[in-house]
Design goal:
Elements (H helix, E strand, L loop, with lengths): L2 H14 L4 E6 L12 H4 L5 E8 L2 H5 L16 H17 L5 E4 L23 H7 L4 E2 L5 E2 L7 E8 L20 H5 L10 E11 L2 E8 L1 H8 L5 H4 L7 H9 L15 H4 L7 E2 L9 E2 L8 H14 L4 E6 L16 H7 L2 E10 L1 H4 L2 H5 L1 H25 L4 E3 L6 H9 L6 E10 L6 E4 L8 H11 L5 E6 L5 H8 L7 E8 L2 H6 L9 H27 L4 E4 L9 E3 L3 E3 L2 H11 L3 E2 L5 E2 L7 E8 L20 H5 L11 E4 L5 E4 L4 H8 L27 H8 L4 H6 L12 H5 L6
Antiparallel strand pairs: 1-2, 2-6, 3-6, 4-5, 7-8, 9-10, 11-12, 11-15, 12-14, 13-14, 16-17, 17-23, 18-23, 19-20, 21-22, 24-25
Helix pairs in contact: 11-15
Length: 741
């Protein structure tokens, strides 16, 4: 396949997955960039960067940040999960064509201080915004955010670096998008553009293929005040905040966190920006500039059909379309100072979508409760992507549409008004409101069919195209201790299903070892692969529940295990603790490192489970050993020497099946993997100040608390989470030769 044909296929796939904008940047456009920030610093064989963006619905920008930037409201709901999902799926698409990839997360991980040859504070290890302009998708605005000719600054971005030979897009070379109107300066809540608040060099400039980009060199610690710390924006302009110490001082002096909503902050410079060629004004609808857009000729029936398709694609089981006026008297919670009355005058319809989850997560066995937060976050994430997709579609059709934020309780009232009820289940819902000409609707979207072991293999799995394998086992064929543990989650359980999603080889091989010294892709691919496998497990459990079976989707079957802090999931389960369950189901075998090993991925996968009382036909079990004879690479790689390669223990999975496993010192492992207390496990790669103290003999809750008090002050004080954005790289997993397949 030639470069152009491959490029066209990839772009089309990205758009099918939901990208609004897709561009290709060749690595030649990174000449002159700091070495550690170049694509080839992340993936040495890199040839191109695939850059993708989804746009903010206009209303979600124009109604956010009121009464001040602390009140994010509808801003960016569903966008990060959407982008993270698109990038992994595009990566998988390319890998299946025989090329290597290095996808990078949308956000969350960056270095807060200068790091080696990177002279900037608050710097991502790879800039999606630089990639955006290098891919020809737009230009920088004076505020330092990128602008496209389609949406102005109203998009978020993600990138996949690849060795695939792709056809580059030309740089943007049409009418300038930023005309230096200075609204960003005038509307900045913190006065960040005044000379005394800018960095020493007040302007940043760089050149790509003869085209120069310039923007204000804003001190990003001042942006950090509201965007990450969520501190009271009414206080920022009064203070000469220049670095983290100014933030610590302000907090010591009593400045409070004031962030509200899913994002906790919306930049007022962003809110009041629009690209000159598509800028218009309508002060009756928005205090800031608006985007010119044409009204679609589609009928209301056509719009509703597409809305239903988008809801179902995100696994919404129910949808209702109600006149917004019917919710006006519900006890909705809006911020003081928000334009509530105007909202009800402007928007006409509320679209609510929902997915049911079992009440067992709230009031069932302990293992179900342990999974409750993760399942709730996973389900909300999917519904948030659903309302984002609906809002973007209606926005592109020329109407106003925006996602409603959870604290309004509009989704809950929408569910109540639709009278949705299923015994033993609770609906998790999200709502989008719109001016589009819709009609009342109350429908079931998911068409369940009888599910058997064969149906999972023949019907369900092919529809779950973003996972790699599934295995089914009768609990009667599991080792007694495995069956006993599983039945603690469901006493009448008869079957265990395991579903896995693989992680690209180069992501694991290179993590923290490449020129970029970056563990971001590794961390991102672990949480996103966990999302994909868990979503698949939820879909299977939903099918089973619809047939009258008890079925629970679970990501953690070990009651006593301790995972790793994970954005968007709460906790990322300990793979070592889950491996015997996955091996019992037949997904793979347990290696000496205690991790599940499979033929296709070695230890490079995340997995989830379904426990059910349904009797399903078992699948063929993986057997044998994938550990090379005499290999101790996993034990040698551990910075804590938590694996003892001098002996092995027997780990049971299926009936009469055991695996040789190196004993693991649980205290040492948790010290590095969960608490991030030592160099070598990846935490230091983001520039965090790592305590590097010896592990205690035993880890009590008091010892864990003391340990966390030694973590980086930006994590502890600014984020209020001592493990925030720790990039943990399980070196035992990375070193395993079974993963280099």
């Amino acid at each position: 396949m030639n470069a152009q044909a491959l490029t066209d296929e990839i772009k089309q796939f990205a758009r099918t997955e939901g990208a609004d904008l897709v561009g290709i940047a060749p690595i030649s456009r990174y000449e002159g960039a700091p070495h550690m920030l170049r694509p080839q610093a992340h993936l040495p064989e890199a040839k191109a960067v695939i850059v993708m963006a989804v746009h903010h619905p206009d209303a979600s920008v124009e109604w956010a940040g009121e009464p001040n930037p602390n009140f994010s409201g509808p801003f960016q709901i569903g966008m990060i999960a959407k982008l993270d999902t698109i990038a992994l799926r595009v990566s998988r698409f390319i890998e299946l064509k025989g090329h290597t990839t290095m996808p990078l997360s949308c956000t969350f991980y960056w270095r807060h201080r200068p790091y080696k040859d990177i002279p900037y504070a608050q710097a991502a290890s790879f800039s999606h915004m630089n990639a955006f302009v290098a891919a020809g998708l737009g230009e920088y605005g004076w505020h330092g955010m990128v602008m496209s000719p389609e949406y102005g600054p109203r998009q978020r971005i993600i990138s996949v670096i690849t060795d695939a030979p792709l056809a580059a897009d030309p740089l943007y070379n049409a009418e300038p998008l930023c005309d230096r109107c200075n609204l960003c300066e005038k509307k900045c809540w913190g006065n960040n553009y005044v000379p005394e608040h800018l960095n020493k060099d007040p302007e940043i400039s760089f050149t790509i293929e003869g085209k120069t980009f310039r923007y204000a060199n804003v001190n990003r610690w001042r942006c950090f005040w509201g965007e990450q710390c969520h501190l009271d924006m009414n206080e920022l302009a009064k203070r000469p905040i220049a670095d983290e110490h100014g933030i610590f001082q302000a907090m010591n002096e009593g400045v409070k966190r004031a962030g509200q909503g899913a994002a906790g902050y919306q930049c007022s410079s962003f809110k009041h920006c629009m690209a000159k060629p598509i800028r218009t004004w309508d002060k009756a609808l928005s205090p800031g500039p608006r985007r010119k857009k044409a009204l679609s000729p589609e009928s209301g029936a056509s719009l509703i059909k597409k809305v239903k398709e988008l809801a179902a694609r995100n696994n919404a089981h129910r949808i209702s379309i109600q006149p917004l006026s019917t919710l006006q008297n519900a006890p909705l919670e809006f911020y003081k100072g928000f334009r509530k009355d105007e909202l009800f005058r402007t928007f006409t319809w509320a679209v609510t979508i929902a997915q049911p989850v079992s009440n067992a997560y709230a009031d069932g066995p302990a293992i179900a409760k342990k999974n409750a937060q993760t399942i709730k976050l996973l389900t909300h994430g999917r519904m948030m992507m659903g309302v984002l997709d609906i809002a973007r579609y209606l926005d592109d059709a020329g109407y106003e549409a925006m996602q409603m934020w959870r604290t309004t309780a509009m989704a809950e009232h929408g569910v109540s008004q639709a009278n949705w009820k299923i015994d033993g289940q609770t609906f998790i819902a999200e709502t989008v409101i719109t001016t589009a000409p819709l009609d009342e609707l109350n429908e079931i979207l998911i068409d369940h069919k009888n599910i058997t072991g064969e149906a999972i293999a023949q019907r369900t799995l092919p529809s779950l195209s973003h996972v790699d394998a599934a295995a089914i086992v009768s609990l009667d064929d599991c080792a007694p201790e495995i069956a006993k543990s599983i039945r603690e989650s469901m006493p009448d359980a008869k079957t265990l299903v395991a579903v896995s999603a693989g992680i690209p080889r180069r992501v694991v091989e290179l993590a923290g070892k490449q020129e970029a010294e970056c563990g971001v892709s590794y961390q991102y691919l672990h949480y996103q692969s966990q999302r994909e496998s868990a979503w698949a497990a939820q879909d299977i459990a939903s099918d089973l529940a619809a047939e009258g079976h008890a079925a629970l989707a679970l990501v953690d079957l070990s009651l006593d295990s301790r995972g790793t802090m994970s954005n968007y999931l709460g906790v990322l389960p300990d793979l070592h603790a889950q491996s015997s369950f996955a091996a019992a189901a037949g997904l793979g075998v347990v290696g000496k490192n205690g991790l599940l090993l499979t033929e296709n991925f070695g230890p490079r996968q995340r997995y989830a489970f379904v426990v059910t009382d349904a009797v399903l036909t078992p699948t063929k079990r993986a057997a044998g050993s994938l550990c090379p004879q005499g290999c101790t690479a996993c034990a040698d790689a551990c910075p804590m020497k938590a694996l003892n390669a001098s002996c092995t223990l027997q780990c049971a999975s299926a009936k009469n099946v055991t695996h040789d496993v190196f004993p693991r010192d649980e205290v040492k492992c948790e010290w590095a993997r969960s608490l991030g207390m030592v160099d070598g496990e990846g935490v230091e790669l983001l520039g965090w100040q790592v305590p590097n103290v010896a592990a205690p003999a035993a880890l009590t809750d008091d010892e864990r608390k003391k340990a966390k008090e030694l973590k980086d002050p930006v994590q502890r004080i600014c984020y209020g989470n001592p493990n925030h954005s720790d990039t943990i790289i399980e070196r035992c997993l990375q070193a395993c030769p079974a993963g280099r397949r």
